[in-house]
Amino acid sequence: MRLWSLHPKYLDAKGLVALWRESLLAKHVLEGKTKGYKNHPQLDRFKNLKRPIDTINQYLAGIYIDALRRGYQFDKDKIDWDFHPTKLTVTNGQLAYERKHLLNKLLIRDSKKHKELKTVTVFEPHPLFRIVGGEIEKWEIIVVKEKKKG
Predict the structure, then answer these.
(1) Residue 150 scores a pLDDT above 60
(2) Are 106 and 114 in contact (CB under 8 A)?
(3) Contact present, 9 and 63 (Cβ < 8 Å)
(4) How far apart are CA 96 and CA 21, in angstroms?
(5) Closest by alpha carbon to 114, among 22, 14, 4, 5?
(6) 137 CB contacts (<8 Å, ≥6 apart)?
(7) Residues 6+ apart with CB under 8 A from 6
(8) Are 17 and 23 in contact (CB under 8 A)?
(9) For a pLDDT cut of 70, what percent of the chain falls above it?
(10) Distances from the Cα of 42 to the Cαs of 65, 67, 140, in angstroms?
(11) What's the mean pLDDT in 15-20?
């Protein structure tokens, strides 16, 4: 499960659809409607809030609005639009990590989108977030690839 902190506009079609599905799954977890993924580390930033369901609905709304802009037909009834708006923080270190992570994914699955984004040095956050200084989030699972000796 990846709940991107970066703005959905940077995602390719496959990434946007995956984010929508994973965010709906996250909503079900937060509502207690599924037994899977309960302890997923990316849910911690929602679980620890006063109104986690409102916040995940707001997160979904940001995805929906970008999907609508692109001409996608996501089901807006999956969102409770009566959410209490809030702002979460995301560190600039986390956004930089997600930028790099996304560019690596795009290099494999969407070279056109990769070429479009590789010169963008700083990605905007999802509308739910405001940027603060700091490192990569503690809940992030960082994959380090070793160089082959040779």
Answers:
(1) no
(2) yes
(3) no
(4) 24
(5) 14
(6) 45, 90, 91, 94
(7) 95, 98, 99, 102, 123, 124, 125, 126
(8) no
(9) 95
(10) 22, 22, 7
(11) 97
Residue type, 4: W
Q: Which residue has the tokens 């994973």?
A: 22
70: its two tokens: 């692109």
> Structure tokens of 16?
């946007």
* The two three-digit tokens of residue 9, written as one number: 């506009």
> Which residue is associated with the tokens 């290099």?
107
DSSP of 88-142, one letter per residue?
Answer: EEEEHHHHHHHHHHHHHHHHHH-HHHHHHHTT--SPPBPTTEEEES--S-TT---
Burial pattern 66-86, b for ≥16 Cβ within 10 A else e, equals: bbeeeeeebeeeebeeebeee
What is the mean predicted confidence (pLDDT) over 96-107? 96
- The tokens describing 135, both together, are 């490192």
